[in-house]
User: What shape does this take?
Amino acid sequence: MTKISRRDFLMLLATAPFYKVAWSQAASSIDRLKQQTENSDTPNILFIVFDTLSAQHVSLFGYQRETTPNFARFAERATVFHNHRTTANFTSPATSSIFTGTYPWTHRAFHLHGTIDHTFAERNMFNLLPDSYYKAAYTHNLLVTSLLHQFGGELDMFKQTRDLCLTDGEFADLLFNNDYSAAFWGESTALRTGATPPGTIFLSMLERMRRFATKSAIDEQYAALYPRGIPNLHNLFFLLEDAIDWIGEQVTTLPQPFLGYFHLLPPHEPYTT
Assistant: This one.
């Protein structure tokens, strides 16, 4: 332990009157922050996430092609971060870090269908804001839906993914909404094909046939706009424009002030757009 000399003690003692001033200023700042929160002029907070959008392919950050001219125009009157890093390279841990402000080894959402440690039920960005904020969320990504279900009690509006989709073949939330995360994982394991074979032979075959029929009909309907096929996730087929238009409506109609978290799937694969 470092010893304080008599000279150091006297110098420290001489600064004591400033502590009261500094503390009063800090307390005053806290009071102003509380008043600002309760004021109708408190700014809205809007998160718009485009899943897997990489800065390496954004013209705003130096990509040689003009891939994001609208972002560039917006950046002219915005604060732009040039040294921002994700905490992980896939949905569950990275999005959980956004929600909790912590690294994966703290929030514990490690694997694809991982969920956030229950200790963050009251320590997340939705709970951080006072009750005066109206909190709304929507996502195309069902893994994010699973995470948002953990904070459902904090959300004033949690719009279902299917509401902005052209077709819907999901069952987990309809049958087991109170246990959505486990039900969604079970549905994916039983019916979906991917890196591992599905858990059921016959049901997965019926599921593939149903999806093929649905996809064929939708692809034919939108062939002129999407010659490579329409954006989709499993049995969810959607237009990004529908979600963008809906978000635009919410910005003008949601109660003020609001926190909106809107997580859209494109440009995530399949790369059809």
The mean pLDDT is 85. The beta strands are 45-50, 134-139, 157-158, 232-233, 236-237, 258-264.
